[in-house]
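Appendix B, record 7
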Amino acid sequence: VQLQASGGGLVQAGGSLRLSCAASGRSSSTYYMGWFRQAPGKEREFVARISQSGGSLYYADSVKGRFTISIDNAKNTVYLRMNSLKPEDSAIYYCGADANPSMMLGGRATYWGQGTQVTVSS
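Structure tokens (predicted):
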């Protein structure tokens, strides 16, 4: 599974961004797709994850109500819509895929895309 993330950038506090993660080379296994982030000096943390069907969603408490994860299986793409952004949301955002959703909650995944920088100015 290859993942390609895009959509990061610089935005003012209160603004919005949408990240995209395009998947290719998927196997016959069922995977959960997720978004993670890593700020300077901090460990990578879980942000949100979604099942391939889109029926199972889970968010970190810090982004609940502000971020929305979605999936377009026709395009093999997962999105993360980020609203009401705060300076503390600034980080490198990574998309990941794993068959085990529980592992994702610990910031881990089997497959990773490259990161995309999100910077929120105050």
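Remarks on this record: The helical segments are 101-105. The CA atoms of residues 89 and 120 lie 7 Å apart.
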